[in-house]
């Protein structure tokens, strides 16, 4: 995993619960709409005089319902894939975090979870910016090593 991917995963961690909630709400909404569409029945058109256009209108309505169901099904697949990825990222971060040294946890907390600037991260610290920078570089290496065993 690249350092940029790791950064993005760490930055996104605090947003994942909201994204998961939004995705699940959208899936519920789609399920409701699909249920409504499936409950829409087409009346039997028998013994109707030909040429009234009624059967064409019904056929067009049915085609519209079928196409709408396909759109909803495709969208629900996309959302499901997104949710799987969100859960995967959340699980990875929650698995990695407790295995890190306190300094690395502090970097993640301040820099990635709280979005603090580096100058603010080390402003009240006994460590200087160079030490923080080295610890951050080390953090990526450690995460990559941990991910090999994941």
Helix amount, in percent? Answer: over 70%
| Count of β-strands | 0
Output the number of helix runs: 5
Unreliably modeled segments: none
Order of helices and strands: HHHHH
Oligomer: single chain
Q: What is the 3D shape? A: elongated
Number of domains: 2
* Sheet/helix structural class: mainly alpha
Strand content: under 5%
What is the CA–CA distance across the termini? Answer: 12 Å
Radius of gyration: 26 Å
The largest β sheet comes out as:
none
The average pLDDT score comes to 85
How are the elements arranged and paired?
Elements: H1 3-39, H2 54-96, H3 102-113, H4 118-121, H5 129-148
Helix pairs in contact: 1-2, 1-3
Describe this structure in words.
By secondary structure, the protein is mainly α. It has helices spanning 3-39, 54-96, 102-113, 118-121, 129-148. It folds into two domains: 7-99; 100-150. The chain is elongated and about 80 Å long.
Please give a quick description of this structure.
With 150 residues, this protein is an all-alpha fold.
Brief descriptors of the model:
single chain, mainly alpha, elongated
